[in-house]
Amino acid sequence: MNLMHTFIETFWDVMPIILVLFGFQIVILKQKIHNLKRIVVGFILVWIGLALLILGLEKALFPLGKLMATQLTSEHFIKDASNWASYYWIYILPPVLALLLLLLSLHYLLLPLKPTRSLVVLLKYGHYALR
Questions:
Q1: How far apart are the C-alpha atoms of 103 and 120, rounded to whole Å?
Q2: Domain boundaries, position 103
Q3: Are 10 and 47 in contact (CB under 8 A)?
Q4: 45, 39 in Cβ contact below 8 A?
Q5: I need a labelling partner for 37 at 20 to 30 A (CA). Which of 3, 119, 122, 124 fits?
């Protein structure tokens, strides 16, 4: 998939969201859109960011997933169970991703607190700080 096709496809994916937001603001709330230039620039940056994210996923992460699936389901891997150690990175990747997701979710849960205070609260009260 080329870059231009990704940008066009992402534009049409984002357009309904933009239309709903602007339509709600104008038709339902009947209010003028303030800072229109900043909002348009923000939507353009979101559009570019999403297009680059999708392109990066298609170029890097999806081929890695296909490779892992091919290796795990290969006839050689299934028949020769003693060779599982050569695929160690396949067994390391899921726990690492789970840990990163946990840390990211903790970050977003504690984001409203001040940075130093959130660390103190997390260390002092542990999981009770997230309630």
A1: 15
A2: 91-131
A3: yes
A4: no
A5: 3
The verdict on 4 and 57 lying in the same domain is yes
Mean pLDDT of the chain: 80
DSSP assignment of 61-117, as one string? IHHHHHHHHHHHT-HHHHH-GGGGGGGHHHHHHHHHHHHHHHHHHHHHHHTTS-HHH
Amino acid, res. 125: Y
Half-sphere exposure of 60 (CA within 13 A, CB side): 6
- The verdict on pTM exceeding 0.90 is no
Helix H or strand E segment including 19? helix 3-23
SS3 6: helix
Residue 129's pLDDT is 47
Evaluate if residue 120 carries a pLDDT over 70: no
29-70 pLDDT, tens digit per residue, is 888 888 889 989 999 999 999 999 999 888 988 888 888 788
* Percent of the chain with pLDDT strictly greater than 90: 21
